[in-house]
Design goal:
One of its GO terms (cellular component) is nucleus. This protein is α+β, with helices and mostly antiparallel strands. The chain has six domains: 135 residues, 3-Layer(aba) Sandwich (Rossmann fold); 171 residues, Topoisomerase I, domain 2, CATH 1.10.460; 121 residues, Topoisomerase I, domain 3, CATH 2.70.20.10; 119 residues, Topoisomerase I, domain 4 (Orthogonal Bundle); 99 residues; 97 residues, no CATH class. The protein is 30% helix and 24% strand. It contains 23 helices and 32 strands. A hairpin with a 5-residue loop joins strand 19 and strand 20. The protein is globular. It binds one DNA strand through strand 5, helix 3 and helix 5.
DNA sequence: GCAAGGTC
């Protein structure tokens, strides 16, 4: 029997599609990467009985990068990145082992059906999958078709079955357009980023960003924020005047009227209008009107709208909102949260999810009434053909979800209920008055039926005092007519929600990448998020954008993306050649790049105003080994030491503090050592600024300290202070921290493993002898007489930290504080699988403690 | 160390 392999874009879709096609009867198992599942079921394909095997990838299988040697910033001129530097495809996520996985599953299959998302990226992934899997599949005998593409516009029974019945072929041109996009983004982005970063980092000491990045999406995103900043800066308030009239409705009640001219900007004219009206005693009713109006129920929820509301109403940043939504999705509370679609498919079961909310403490009444009276048909939205709108999948309570997740869930659910509710109906009434020659109006709204605003109370029509009932020809007494002097006010900084709207409008990024771009400009310190989630550009952000405007405005205009996209679409439609478009566009940007490099002084002039040159920044710290003058420590990111005499800069490890290390010097280059440490309970080690930037030995990597230096006799080196192989990672060595007494510490020079030992010992030294059973270096410890843990009056003991029974009692292993989730930065991290059980068994390394290792490993989580 | 695009 033949086997048909089918591949979807993500695990969740593989499951839904398999469920539909197998009518619910399929077997399932995890794939070798632990992330993708494989669903199998029997069926018929092209009239033959076959075995179907449905699985998925996780987005792109491959990613584009330069060949390794072109990633050395010091050795490659960024201009080379436009053409000379070759690129290669690498596995996008090596941990997922996607190519291997596809090959294991694809081996021996006869046909393949590609169920990737029906957009250009999906088409591109089709070919990534084919590249991996075709070589291991069975060859077709008579040249019949073995590669099929399923095109579907929603994940519904009818659509999926229809797609299966009308299989086509993958579209190579669409895939090529993505290849071109990837190459352009990579070459252009990296060239500009490297040049800018090196240029400005080499000149200024307080830029406060370790990367001065450029990209066709992030730069226009920043541009929007700075554009608003410029509007605020150049805003000149203008004075204007408003005529305000008050009429008496009855004895106790008066009514404020709006002037039909709204406002005038000339004082004398305003005065003239006041003079013409202020002596009038009566206001005459000229007309009245009453109109029934409706406020429309919302469209079904898509990602971008959810992010906007999350930011503006819930105060949650887009990145955070997406993470929260993803968690709600994987826990089964909401449907797939990444979709552009605002239209429910015809077959969508609206009542099912609604019924689940019928007993919810917050909205049971509304839901029950809707179910009893019949739901309203949702508005017709946009169908992007990706996933149904975001809807709740099961009821949840605040206690169950807690905090942020609950607030987002609550919003999604209220929004969903609103989409099947009725429009809000209200009566808008207005009365027009004449006072002298001038006209005034008064309007009011009264709710007829609240409709969806009952479940979205923040949208409700505000309660107003009702208008007096009057008719044309009636007169009311004028209580007062006065002139108000006011000033126009500047706009405020751009809110995140407004920025998302602008990005969407100009096609900057996608629903999935918009949060990433916004996050980028925050992390690079180009903008800061202020109260109300408004984005205020920093000096750095402003200078960059103003600099681009000065040199080549196209670099920052939102049109840069759409212009390139237009070219790419020609490739996708088969109307232009991939090589030609790529070559031409790269050529245009190469010219722009050279012009930018030649004109960089224009941006530099702006930099000079806001930032200080390297030589004028930082505090003197340690001595240079070449000129023996003090170098200055520049704390701002990226922290480094600068010798203004030699005009050399030495980068330091980031995320830690640096101090002078007892004026000790490196025996190799005479530079004064510094001590790097990460917080009070973290680890610390000495570091030679020169060696760290120019490693003296082949096995020492750049950016490391003396704890990785293999100098055979220097008292600070790994050779002298190393004890034995780390118990938490493959390649690290536990090294004594000679500065840590009296709370002595031993730390891994690679991972976060840290051991506290021998508290109150007054001296700890690494001995030249090694342990007979595990080959670790012995430690020579002098204890304090009063607090010695040794039997009798002994104060001195030599032994193995892993094997010696006395020492074992005195060693407590744990990760360094910086490894704790509390101290970690944002971002996904898989916290499982460290330590015990991760090391391949039976692979002894040098100086490895034998079975004692596992006992020690049990100490840490 | 860099882009933007998928997704976990």
């Amino acid at each position: 029997m033949k086997t048909v392999l089918m591949v979807a874009e993500k695990p969740s879709l593989a499951q839904s599609i398999a469920k539909i096609l197998s009518r619910g009867s399929m077997s399932s198992r995890k794939g070798l990467n632990g992330t993708c599942s494989v669903y199998e079921y029997p069926g018929t394909f092209a009239g033959q009985p076959v075995r179907f095997k449905m699985t998925s990838v996780c987005g792109h299988v491959m990613t584009l990068d330069f060949l390794g040697k072109y990633n050395k910033w010091d050795k490659v001129d960024p201009a080379e990145l436009f053409s000379q530097a070759p690129t290669e495809k690498k596995e996008a996520n090596p941990k997922l082992n996607m190519v291997k996985f596809l090959q294991v599953e694809g081996r021996g299959c006869d046909c393949i059906v590609l169920w990737l998302d029906c957009d250009k990226e999906g088409e591109n992934i089709c070919f990534e999958v084919l590249d991996a899997v075709l070589p291991v599949m069975n060859q077709a005998h008579g040249g019949e078709q073995t590669v099929f593409r399923a095109r579907f516009s929603s994940i519904t029974d009818t659509d999926i079955c229809a797609a299966m019945a009308r299989l086509g072929e993958p579209d190579h041109n669409e895939a090529l357009s993505v290849d071109a996009r990837q190459e352009l983004d990579l070459r252009i982005g990296c060239a500009f980023t490297r040049f800018q970063t090196k240029y400005f980092q080499g000149k200024y000491g307080n830029l406060d960003s370790s990367l001065i990045s450029f990209g066709p999406c992030q730069t226009p995103t920043l541009g929007f924020c700075v554009e608003r900043h410029d509007k605020i800066q150049s805003f000149k308030p203008e004075t204007y005047w408003v005529l305000q009239a008050k009429v008496d409705v009855d004895k106790d009640r008066s009514l404020l009227l709006d002037w039909d001219r709204v406002r005038v900007f000339d004082r004398e004219i305003a005065q003239m209008f006041l003079n013409m009206t202020k002596l009038e005693k009566e206001a005459q009713v000229e007309a009245t009107s009453r109109k029934e109006k409706a406020k429309q129920r919302p469209l079904a929820l898509n990602t971008v709208e959810m992010l906007r509301v999350a930011s503006s109403a819930l105060g949650m940043g887009p990145q955070h909102a997406m993470q929260t939504a993803e968690r709600l999705y994987t826990q089964g509370y909401i449907s797939y949260p990444r979709t552009e679609t605002t239209h429910y498919p015809e077959s969508f079961d609206l009542k099912g999810p609604l019924r689940q909310q019928a007993n919810h403490p917050y909205w049971a009444d509304t839901v029950k009434r809707l179910l009893a009276a019949g739901i309203n048909r949702p508005r017709k939205g946009h169908d992007a053909g990706d996933h149904p709108p975001i809807t709740p999948m099961k009821a949840a309570t605040e206690a169950e979800l807690g905090g942020e997740a609950w607030r987002l869930y609550e919003y999604i659910t209220r929004h969903f209920i609103a989409t099947v509710s009725h429009d809000c109906k209200y009566l808008q009434s207005s009365v027009s008055f004449r006072i002298g020659p001038e006209r005034f109006t008064c309007t009011g709204k009264t709710v007829i039926s609240p409709g969806f605003t009952e479940i979205m109370p923040w949208q409700s029509v505000p309660l107003e005092e009702s208008l007096p009932t009057c008719q044309k020809g009636d007169t009311l007494a004028v209580a007062e007519v006065k002139l108000l002097e006011k000033q126009t006010s500047p706009p405020d900084y751009l809110t995140e929600a407004e920025l998302i709207t602008l990005m969407e409008k100009h096609g900057i990024g996608t629903d999935a990448s918009i949060p990433v771009h916004i996050n980028n400009i925050c992390q690079r310190n180009y903008v800061v998020v202020e109260s109300g989630r408004r984005l205020k550009p920093t000096n750095l952000g402003i200078v960059l954008v103003h600099g681009y405007y000065k040199i080549d405005a196209e670099l920052v205009l939102p049109t840069i993306r759409s212009a390139v996209e237009k070219q790419l679409n020609l490739i996708a439609q088969g109307r232009a050649d991939f090589r030609q478009v790529l070559g031409h566009t790269l050529d245009v940007f190469k010219r722009k790049f050279h012009y930018f490099v030649d004109s960089i002084a224009g941006m530099d002039e702006l930099m000079e105003v806001s930032f200080s040159p390297l030589a004028a920044t930082g505090k003197p710290l340690s001595r240079c080994g070449k000129c023996h003058r003090f170098m200055k420590y520049i704390q701002a990111k990226p922290s480094r030491l600068h010798c203004s005499h030699c005009d050399e800069t030495y980068t330091l490890p980031q995320n830690g503090t640096i101090k002078l290390y007892k004026e000790l010097r490196c025996p190799l280059d005479d530079f004064e050592l510094v001590l790097w440490s990460s917080g009070s309970r973290g680890k610390s080690y000495p570091l030679c600024p020169y060696c760290s930037n120019h490693p003296p030995f082949r096995d020492m990597k750049k950016g490391t300290g003396c704890n990785e230096c293999t100098h055979p006799s220097c008292q600070h080196s790994l050779s002298m202070l190393g004890i034995g192989q780390c118990v938490g990672c493959e390649s690290g060595v536990l090294v004594l921290d000679p500065t840590s007494g009296p709370k002595w510490r031993v730390a891994c020079n690679r991972c976060h493993v840290l051991a506290h030992c021998f508290e109150n010992a007054h001296r700890v030294r690494v001995s030249a002898e090694t342990c007979a059973s595990c080959e670790a270096a012995l430690l020579d410890v002098d204890f304090n007489k009063a607090k010695s843990p040794l039997p009798g009056d002994g104060t001195q003991h030599t032994g193995c930290i892993f094997c010696d029974p006395i020492f074992q009692e005195l060693v407590e292993l744990k990760h360094a504080a910086s490894c704790h989730p509390m101290h970690r930065g944002p971002g996904r991290r898989q916290g499982r699988g460290r330590g015990r059980g991760r090391r391949p068994a039976g692979k002894p390394g040098p100086r490895r403690p034998k079975d004692k290792m596992s006992a020690l490993a049990a100490y840490f989580v």
